[in-house]
Amino acid sequence: MRTFSVRDEAARVMVAAPLIAFVTTHILYLNFYKLNYGLNMKVCVAMGIAQLLLWAIWAGVTHHPLKWKLWTVVVGTGLAMLLEIYDFPPYGGYLDAHALWHATTIPLTFLWWSFIKEDAEFRTSNSMKKVK
Which residues contact 6 (CB under 8 A, 6 or more apart)? Predict the structure, then answer.
């Protein structure tokens, strides 16, 4: 919704409802019909790539003052996804790609939420300026 600046409530529902239905159906299928790890990885990677592409396009066209945080999260998450996809066995019996993936999500999550918080403050201050 944010990347396309969808503000109309009906449009939000028309976009969100099919996505929520798809994710819910996917989770129910995995939990109650067949737990298929390969299918789950494909769906998660596809959703991750789609989200990264949408945010990258938005970051490329916006003049947002905090877009450097967004670019860092997009590039960092894309690289982190490679650790999840191209798994390698534990190095020295301790450190593998999955462990590194989890380690990279810590700073990326912090940076993402700081962007979300500061973006909300930025949008609120801009809205307040327009009201005055």
Answer: 12, 15
